[in-house]
Amino acid sequence: MRIVVKVGTSTLTHRETGKPNIARIAKLVSVLSDLHNMGHEVVLVSSGAIGVGTTKLGLRKKPGEVRGLQAAAAVGQVELMFLYDKLFSEYGIVVSQLLFTYDVLHQDDSRQHMLDTFNQLIEYGAIPVVNENDSVSIEELINGDNDRLSAMVATLINADILIMLTDTDGLYDSNPSENKDAKLIERVEEITPDIEAVAGSAGKKGTGGFVTKVGAAKLATDKGIPVVVMNGEKPTRIYKVIEGKSVGTYFCPKE
Predict the structure, then answer these.
(1) Over 90: is that where the pLDDT of 102 sits?
(2) Residue 7 bridge partners (DSSP)
(3) Taking the model in full, what pTM does it have?
(4) How many CA atoms lie within 13 A of 140 on its CB side?
(5) Which residue has the higher pLDDT, 2 or 143?
């Protein structure tokens, strides 16, 4: 399988301090490395640069201005890639960094060059680690926490599945933080206006809530790619997803 895994800031960092959650990142890396060793082709779309950069710079809170966010992202991206390189190398896995902006994906020549790079890296046995180039582009930085980017990457490389890790168990029929009787929607056959209406902002650390996740799921499923949105607290549950078991919310692809 060609698998795209998107991990959000809320999964990568400790809620209380904003610093990297080393244990969880290490577990995620071990799972992705194992999937790679099974013969699967893995691409990681990783948020977290702003959060990690904020703490690395010693700032008490995330900057409020765009230029501050861009600067924090520039610092945090270095730290994130250092962690990924160090942890993946323990399993003998080579990682690469791909930073790009949306205009690349909307230009035929640039899009093809990007696809060629993905395919060659995968052929070489490397795991691409993808993020928006936040220092020169601010679309996902402000609105999406890489949710839409992950869907666009999945469609670009014709992935078999997109798995989005977040800080909730999936999409609920109402806000679980406000309604104790909220029920998890385990399967979405079609993303209708009703489904879009129940998508609320669930994230704590990231900029993307369920509105952006459902939007990203729509992009991918419209291209025939199934999407799973699940809690990233236990990355080993990714195995269950690959085995076809019910985890989180499964968005059915259009045929």
Answers:
(1) no
(2) 46, 165
(3) 0.91
(4) 32
(5) 2
